[in-house]
Amino acid sequence: MRIDLHTHSTASDGTDTPAELVRRAAAGGLDVIALTDHDTTRGHAEAVAALAGVEGLTLVPGAELSCRLDGIGLHMLAYLFDPVEPELLAQRELVRDDRVPRARGMVARLQELGVPVTWEQVARIAGDGSVGRPHIAEALVELGVVASVSEAFVPQWIGDGARAYVAKHELDPFEAVRLVKAAGGVTVFAHPGAARRGAIVSDEVIASLAAAGLDGIEVDHMDHEPATRARLRGLAAELGLLVTGSSDYHGTRKTCVLGEFTTDPEIYGEITRRATGAFPVPGAGGAPRSTG
Fold first, then answer.
1. How far apart are CA 63 and CA 83, in angstroms?
2. d(CA 207, CA 37)
3. How far apart are CA 77 and CA 64, in angstroms?
4. What is the DSSP letter of 38?
5. Rounded CA gap, 148 and 24, in Å?
6. Count of CA atoms in the C-beta half-sphere (13 A) of 276
């Protein structure tokens, strides 16, 4: 089984629609894919509808929650939670609703720095998705300010704490773990060692999150060097955490490809066993893919 538990669509900052993502995953020979758009489940219905036209693929509904602890941004992957559980839904809406004023503020700061970016340009790039820094980064690429989206996430431009950075409402990660668990879901700390993106939390924080109910950490990821993966794998074993691998696919907005990193079927089976808020959705003629 080939299992990719971290992907994005146009419902947040990917370039494939949810339906296109499902078809691409099926064509690429994946068995299981999780749709984890930033702070939203808006793409789930379209993805589920697209499953009717494919065989051999199971969809795991999820989201990637924006969190911050002591000034450090981190992302929490949430799987198979009840999408209408009121407390978690309210927090996701707070985060999502803050995205537009935050993005407008970053555009204004870039203009003050002499960059001829406009809100209209960023809004066009975002389309119906939840506007975020990747859309602003793509605008900078269009303007020739940077050569790639990743080059915009630096102190000079829109990285954490950068000249044009503006903070947004984000969850405390311990609260995120509590909320997802209360909604019947499973939590995995996304790319915890991605130091190239900015500051990362310590292993002690990860241990505290594990004690608070964190289920796993995403180890095999494009932003983790081999030594980082080995260290995180050892930490996960020490703390009793599940280890996942994922592409963090964003379509053409990033260089990674679907299925570039995958999750062991036994780990996926444990995730589905722990979840009570929702269930994996099988494609045409199939049953939910689970090893348990």
1. 10
2. 26
3. 4
4. B
5. 24
6. 4
Q: What is the pLDDT of residue 160?
A: 85
Type of residue found at 157: W
pLDDT tens string 25-47: 999 999 999 999 999 999 999 99
Q: Could you tell me where the beta strands, DSSP code E, fall in 145-212?
A: 186-190
Kindly report, residue by residue over 115-160, the tens digit of the pLDDT: 999 999 999 999 988 899 999 999 999 999 999 998 999 989 998 8
| pTM of the predicted protein model | 0.89
The residue ranges of DSSP E strands in 100-151, in sequence order, are none
Nearest to 63 by CA among 153, 179, 205, 197: 179
Q: Which phi and psi angles does 94 have, rounded to 5°?
A: -60, -45
Residue with token string 């066009």: 124
Question: How many residues in total does the chain contain?
Answer: 292
CB of 153 closer than 8 Å to CB of 34: no
10 Å CB burial of residue 255 (0-12, 13-18, 19+) is: exposed
